[in-house]
Design a protein that fits this description.
The complex is a heterodimer. Chain A is mostly beta strands. Chain A has no helices and 11 strands. Chain A has strands at residues 4-6, 11-14, 19-25, 32-38, 44-50, 55-57, 60-65, 70-75, 84-91, 101-102, 106-111. By secondary structure, chain B is mostly beta strands. Chain B contains no helices and 11 strands. In chain B, the strands form 2 sheets. In chain B, strands 2, 4, 5, 6, 9, 10 and 11 form a 7-stranded mixed sheet that branches. A 4-stranded antiparallel sheet of chain B has the order 1-3-8-7, with no helix packed on it. In chain B, strand 5 and strand 6 (53-57) form a beta hairpin. Chain A binds chain B through residues 31-32, 34, 41-46, 49, 87, 91-94, 96-100, 102-105, and chain B through 2, 31, 33, 41-43, 45, 48, 50, 55-56, 88, 90, 97, 100-110, 112.
Chain lengths: 112, 116
Amino acid sequence: RKEVEQDPGPFNVPEGATVAFNCTYSNSASQSFFWYRQDCRKEPKLLMSVYSSGNEDGRFTAQLNRASQYISLLIRDSKLSDSATYLCVVTPPTDSWGKLQFGAGTQVVVTP
Amino acid sequence: DTEVTQTPKHLVMGMTNKKSLKCEQHMGHRAMYWYKQKAKKPPELMFVYSYEKLSINESVPSRFSPECPNSSLLNLHLHALQPEDSALYLCASSQDPLAGGYETQYFGPGTRLLVL
């Protein structure tokens, strides 16, 4: 079983619509959780950290469910510029410091 | 400013060449990383430097040789690479290794390497 799993998509989303997707992680002792976005042939860029209480940044909302070991990302009012691959990233327990665990990414394509 | 810079942006090299990739950050971060990323795959960790000392080597072949001359700079020396080493090489940094498992890593734009 992979440490971090994501639906690869693609999620084809009409402009202005809402899209949501999840990521599951296998180690219940995982420390921190992030969503990065990666555009084609570019570097991953931090989108947001994910906290147990849930957090929102503009049109983006992230949630963490430790009991079920998943995190989610919701994008409201999708823009064409939201088209990207969204990487779920998990920090393992502190004895594996530095070794981020990446999901394979969820591709989102926003269409006019 | 969360900026990590990398040079060169693109590199083409033959299997007998020696080249180096460079990475720089001026955020005062004390951990720096090298990753390799193939198309449609997530980044794979290669090396981690913590306070200028190599702390993680993910069983990377010796044809890749990292170097951390100071807290702002990270190099990756390349020698006798194979065509399968062609990939995007990403550098990243994070603030304080002693902070435990809560570190956010910031990535540079990468060097796209083609080995012929």
